[in-house]
Amino acid sequence: MTARRKQGLMLLFAALCLSVSAQTKKVSPKENYSAYLFAYFTGNAKAEEQICFAISKDGYNYRALNSGKPIIQSAAISETGGVRDPHILRGADGKTFYMVVTDMVSANGWSSNRAMVLMKSTDLINWTSSVVNIQKRFAGQDSLLRVWAPQTIYDAAAKKYMIYFSMQHGKNPDKIYYAYANKDFTDLEAEPKQLFYSPDNAACIDGDIAEKDGKFYLFFKTEDRHPGIKVAVSDKLTGGYQMQSPDYVQQTKSPVEGAGTFKLNDGSGFILMYDMYTSGKYQFTKTKDLKAFTVVDEEVSMNFHPRHGTVMSITTAEAERLMKKWGAAEDVLGNATSTQIKKINTKVDTVNKTVYLSVKPGTNLKAFNPAFRLLPSTTVSPATAQDFSKAAVKYVVNIKGQQPQTWNVIAKENHNPVLEGYFADPDVLYSEKTKKYYIYPTSDGFNGWSGTYFKAFSSTDLVNWKDEGVIVDLLKDVSWAKRNAWAPCIIEKKVNGQYKYFYYFTAAQKIGVAVADDPAGPFVDMGKALIDKKPEGVRGGQEIDPEVFTDPQTGKSYLYWGNGYMAVAELNEDMISLKQETLQTIKVDRTFREGTTVFFRNGVYYFLWSEDDTRSENYRVRYGTSTSPLGPINIPANNLVIAKDPSTGIYGTGHNSILQISGKDEWYIVYHRFNYPKGITMGSAAGFNREVCIDKMEFNADGSIKQVTPTHEGVKPLK
Fold this sequence. Notes:
The protein is mainly beta. It folds into 3 domains: 31-326, Tachylectin-2, Chain A (5 Propeller); 329-413, Immunoglobulin-like (Sandwich), CATH 2.60.40.2340; 423-697, Tachylectin-2, Chain A (5 Propeller), CATH 2.115.10.20. It has 5 helices and 45 strands. A hairpin with an 8-residue loop joins strand 40 and strand 41. Belongs to the glycosyl hydrolase 43 family.
């Protein structure tokens, strides 16, 4: 064989090898990540302790899959019948997936579980599972009280999957342990070893490990005197963790848990997210170095309320598979992104395949584009602006692997709710100084009414409202109370020729007062509670819901308050103290619950109050009249002012204030209702997911109040 021929054969062989190598080389999934999968659970009820999935194209905006229902039933995979804290991981081979969850039903107690569930899948749809009960599996675990929040990471050095989780034994604090899973991911190879404990010997739970530049960052919740998330760092996965700093990394003062980190597909950094479990919210922060974190909540949207979950990047093919199995047209059409849409008031009717969009004042409905946010493997047409002014517009949704669906989309300008977002207990003011209207509400949308700040909103026409920002923040501005910022009221007074604004508010079931020179603040708290105890003879109820009223006949100002009772006292001229000798209670009938409102018309004092509980769909307003601001109150037989209207989906109409247009016998009721349309589906949570509305209020010839019908349309702009 000639040298030239030998060289040619060698070149041919090399080319064949390269060809075979190219054909057999697997493309790294990292090169094809195009979406994200969010695994989470939703609450502490047994029906909510289930694994749910949501999907996103950008890592910030998620829609629940399977209509928000579980992707697998907890009863089928667990000992207790409930699972929590799902952690999902892509295997080292790029095509196998692992999920671990806490085997627990919280109703049985926070120290009631001993097990976790190990799950495995090759398609994200079908999962095998095994329960690992630590107490049964390993000897010497008699003092074990609980096993919480397992997570999995691949140990490249050991070539095994390491599961880490917290455990508590006896009276000792929770610590983080680890063990390797067996080859089939059905059991632990050996008894768990301690991985980390908090240096201050406090409970240490909810570990989450992120790897960056050869270092392992362990995020964990420390339950010391100021619970929060901290970070420990090590060069070794299985030990040697040292505190990165003594600082917390959560960017909120609200309680948090369940830290979860994931890399963004565009390479711009990491997301650290965590469960604000007392607020009913989830916060997203962004970081490049796992040291400095910036809140990105304004970029985040979800149509579900997650609890302690994790996010994993997925490929286009995986996203298609998930959408084919669990995606739905309403997931797309219920997620319009136009800034002209009232985001929390979109109604999706799956029976009639219709979406109702409530748009803001001034929207051009003759050329309007809802701008539906697309999900993976989904298209929507038409994609351009359409004429919504006369009829519904037909949209066709295509999800790869499913039959196309045609839906009707209706867009309508509604003026209720008047404020964008969750707010309640509105007090309304017309300022002679600025010639504007103001609403002062409770900031709502927090679990258990746990908001800690107050905002103000201004308008010139009662329809278009400007957010004036936070005017009182309990955490910053108030020394005597730090929780439950509720039900404020305000009055404008001239003091020595200058306008002053006296703002009465509830905090920690006490009533305080702050003062400003402008209706939008800044307000300065007086440094102590104005009311912090019950009137003499009152046994139940709460010291909440202040109402301030100046009698136009005498010029005297009065403060009313109370839940379960109605109290009143005359204010001193300084408006920040009470004439204690005038303090008394006013008798009302059994319908009185809270939210007193007083106004004067044609020689008559009108007293309004809320009946029932704000969590009830039957929360409503009643009234009585008097010849004095101190009562007694005469209660008419037909004294309902406003109540629910099931025919329009309006419920929980209560806690109002009243506005009279200056110089006119023209009146408006400003009140809150359940969020429309979801509130009525939320159970008791509807009571802290409320929104503010305005409707006109009219009187009969005899001075009685005509019952108000609550509307979505609201009022027309004042001229």
